[in-house]
Amino acid sequence: MIDDANPELSQPSPDERPVRHPLVQRLLRVVIVIGVLALILPSVLSAFTTQARTAELACRTIVSSYQLRGVTAVAKLELIAPAGPGWYCVARETDGTETVLAYLGLIPGLSNLPEPGVPA
Q1: Does residue 105 come out as left (phi exceeding 0), alpha (psi in the -120 to 50 range) or beta?
Q2: CA 86 to CA 108: how far, in whole Å?
Q3: % pLDDT > 70, the chain
Q4: Is this prediction's pTM over 0.90?
Q5: Helix (H) or strand (E) holding 33
Q6: 3-state DSSP call for residue 5?
Q7: Going by C-beta distance under 8 Å and a sequence separation of 6 or more, which residues neighbour residue 41?
Q8: Per-residue pLDDT averaged across 16-28, rounded?
Q9: How does DSSP classify residue 102?
């Protein structure tokens, strides 16, 4: 008798339709995906910008430690390289030739600063 008094507690019949319209479900999924991207994307961009700036400053320090004149310090992110993926410090001369001075790592820094005059 409890089922007769409370029809909402009875088992649903197999022909019942979903509570929400399929268009509303799709719209909710799109909003959720946009929300997740809005949370993740700023963090990724901030981390990349910080790494690029750190790599640039570390590369300037390396070039100045070699006391190279007439070259520009360039930090490059290489995904396919001999030492593996990561940031590389490159000295670019005025004629356009480039020389790799140091591997800065995936997270750039000066922890592995090469000694001037000692081959890497």
Answers
A1: left
A2: 8
A3: 79
A4: no
A5: helix 22-65
A6: helix
A7: none
A8: 84
A9: E
